[in-house]
Each structure stands twice: as structure tokens, then as C-alpha cells.
Protein: enoyl-[acyl-carrier-protein] reductase (NADH)
Organism: Capnocytophaga catalasegens
Amino acid sequence: MYNLLKGKKGIIFGALDENSIAWKTAERVFEEGGKFVLTNAPIAMRMGKINELAQKTGAEIIPADATNIDDLQNLVTKAMEILGGKLDFVLHSIGMSVNVRKNIPYTESNYDFTLKGWDVSALSFHKVCQVLYKNDAMNPWGSIVALTYMAAQRTFPDYNDMADNKAYLESIARSFGYFFGKDKKVRVNTISQSPTPTTAGQGVKGFDGFISYAEKMSPLGNATAQECADYTVSLFSDLTRKVTMQNLFHDGGFSNVGVSQEVIEQFSK
Ligand SMILES: NC(=O)c1ccc[n+]([C@@H]2O[C@H](COP(=O)([O-])OP(=O)(O)OC[C@H]3O[C@@H](n4cnc5c(N)ncnc54)[C@H](O)[C@@H]3O)[C@@H](O)[C@H]2O)c1
């Protein structure tokens, strides 16, 4: 390992179990010398195994519903107390759509569910950024990263209203990135990750077909959660200090491929 995050402190949202992208990222950040507080929604604490991760990485856990400003305020205040100062990195690795969970087709969206999913998956990122900004909680050259998916740019029918949520999330990274850059010298980016077998990923209908298709379309193959953790570490490190307001594809090349030889062969008589 390279000690890329030695002396750096942060908050990691969204580690549910060992498949979670946030779980793998926490392990990699720990290996690179970073210190952090882990957080997740109170209900996820009961379902998941976050205690195991906390023990392994010497992290404290502070529960917070990322849609609740009081919870976020408490989290940021306590994280700075525990870690002994301002933060250098924050990972937002949160997503949930009630319409997807309940198998409601996009054309029949229940708008109460749409609003709930939007709040959790997209607006929560604005809330996290706003609480960090108002508390002046980030060190200069700090880095804030959220995870997204390419359905924000192109249609994947079963991704449902999460596509709209991701488009909104990516826009927040640009808009808040402007103010965070100007006022605090802090980076804000999204990583657009390949389909990945996690609890959230597998909630999408037809996920198995979808992940195999992406694998066949990507010249380098799908990016794994572990590889996403590596990429995130690079964005938290000092090696990427002028990268901000970007949506960064981490997908083995999928997003720039029209069709691959393997896919053509499937359709050739
Ligand atoms: N898995 C994929 O195929 C894939 C692809 C691209 C992007 N992503 C994105 O990666 C991120 C992480 O998802 P994952 O695939 O690791 O799945 P995951 O299910 O392991 O993680 C999702 C997390 O969101 C948390 N969460 C839900 N509601 C919350 C709330 N109100 N407050 C705080 N936390 C809450 C869950 O508890 C869970 O830990 C999500 O933004 C997801 O959309 C996933």
C-alpha cells in the first residue's frame, strides 16, 4: 500500500455488508492510513454488519438518516470531535427507490414513493454537502464523492426512477462543487460505477442479465466494488487535487462502447 491517506480524516456513509461499495472503500481507506467515522441509517444498523467493519478499521459508528438535517448535524459535530478536527474526505454511498422495491413500473410511479426515493438517493447529497459547508467542516483540498450510475445519461428501463435520482445527484455535485471549490477549495465529484452485485444493485429487476451484458460490452470488463474502492481512494488523495465537478465513469469503458464483438456474435445467425 502507498499511505495515500495518511493523516486524513473523514466520514463514510452506506456500508451495509461486505458487498457494499462503502464497505470495500472503508477497508481500502483504512489500509491507506485514513481515519474515519462510519455512518448509516438507524434501520440499516440493525440489519447490516457495520459493527464488524468498525472493529476491523478502528472506526466509531454514528447513526444518521441522511435525509434528516438534525441527524447530519449531530454526525458532523461528533465526527470532528472524535477525529480531532476538520475532515478531508466524505463518501456518500446511498441509494434506495421505493418504486423499485415494490416493483412498480416507471410508467405507474407512485409519487409519494418517488419523493421518498429522491430524498434518500439525491437530495440527501445536497443535505450532506450543506451541513458540511455551513459547519466549515472540510479542510482545504478535501474531497467529497458520491456514487452514481450511467442511467443518468442513457435509459435502462428497469433502473426506473433511480435514473432521475442519479441525474439530480450528478447535478448537485456540479452545483455544490462550484461553491465548495470557490469558497473552501474542496472537490466534489461523482463516480459512475459499473453494475455491482450489492444489496442495492440486486434490487434492480433483471440485474443478472444486466451485469452480464455490461461485462460483454466493456473492453476491460465490469469494474468491481474493490476497484471502485481503489478509484475512490485516488479521489480522496492529494494526487487528484484539481479534479472537481466531474461525473467520472468507472466502468471498464462501457459508457463509450456502441457494440462489442461478443454482443454482435450473440445476434449473428
Ligand atoms: N450496485 C450497483 O450496481 C451500483 C452501480 C452504480 C452505482 N451504485 C450506487 O452505489 C451506492 C452504494 O450502493 P451499493 O451498491 O453499495 O449498495 P448497498 O445496498 O450496499 O448500499 C446502499 C446504502 O444506502 C443506505 N441507505 C439507504 N437509505 C439511507 C438513509 N435514509 N440514510 C442513510 N443511508 C441510507 C443503506 O443502508 C445502504 O448501506 C448507491 O448510491 C448506488 O446507487 C451502485
Notes: The pocket of nicotinamide-adenine-dinucleotide is lined by residues 13-14, 16, 20-22, 40-41, 44, 65-67, 93-96, 120, 147-149, 193, 195-196, 198-201 (CB under 6 Å). The mean pLDDT is 96. Residues 227 and 250 are 9 Å apart (CA to CA).
